[in-house]
Amino acid sequence: MTHSLKFWAVVPAAGVGKRMNADRPKQYLQLNDKTVIEHTLMRLLSANVFTAVAVAISEEDPYWPELAIATHEKVITAAGGKERADSVLSALKAIRTLASDDDWVLVHDAARPCITTTDIKHLIETLKNDEVGGILALSSHDTLKSVQGDCIVDTLDRSFIWRALTPQMFRYGLLKTALEEAEGNPAITDEASALELKGLKPKIVEGRPDNIKITRPEDLALAQFYMEHQND
Ligand code: C5P
Predict the structure, then answer these.
(1) ∠ at Cα 168 (80, 132), nearest 5°?
(2) Is 148 helix (H, G, I), strand (E, B) or coil?
């Protein structure tokens, strides 16, 4: 029997988002007519490529059960973890009986509500025959400085520097093993870094600059602006 490859989305959404200085985690702040996480999940679902979306939610989170999308037939809720990598691993474990080792997983931050179907499909089309997988990334337009204290000590060659975005796309089995092996390592701030630690070389795929991560209060207005001007 031939196995048809599936695509899964994993959304870490168990962070607090301290830099927003808000009364609730940033994924529950209002952006136009919906919360940030509702935009993110609806955009992933409307790309029409995922078998299911596994969302990692903090156990003390009172907001998630209030959202209608929490009971969507394609949404699976998993427990959040201490760090982002723990949340991703927990979501992967929640789909362990459904996913095959060679299925693709696209991990996407709950705090990136402006993700487009164009970017999701571009990532998938570029990497679906790749051995390792890779991530959406952006080159830097600014000159980059290495700094000690408040003094510049070096100017970096920016042709080597890319900013890691999400989704990050890897095979289920490889990603789960890499995250398990890297457990507790503070250097693992995204999925690609767990694979790099195994000596693998994930690819970069140039993404759109409107796929911003809500981090600071002003990012909400910027996300609103992008949403009003996106038409794909
Ligand atoms: O804090 P930061 O913006 O880097 O978080 C990126 C994503 O990881 C967010 O969607 C956040 O909710 C999630 N996260 C998580 N579990 C943690 C920390 C962050 O799911 N322990």
Answers:
(1) 120
(2) strand
Query: Which CATH number fits the domain that encloses residue 139?
Result: 3.90.550.10
**Nearest Cα residue to 82 out of 183, 192, 190:** 183
What gap in Å lies between CA 162 and CA 160, rounded to an integer? 7
Residues 6+ apart with CB under 8 A from 229: none
27 within ligand 1 shell (Cβ under 6 A):
yes
Report the C-alpha gap between 178 and 137 in whole angstroms: 20
Strands 133-139 and 203-206: parallel
DSSP state of 80: -
pLDDT in tens, 184-219: 999 999 999 999 999 999 999 999 999 999 999 999
Number of domains in the chain: 1
Expressed as residue numbers, the domain containing 122 is: 2-229
Distance 61 CA to ligand 1 centre (A): 13
Distance (angstroms) between ligand 1 centre and the Cα of 214 equals: 11
DSSP 25-58: -GGGSEETTEEHHHHHHHHHHHT---S-EEEEE-
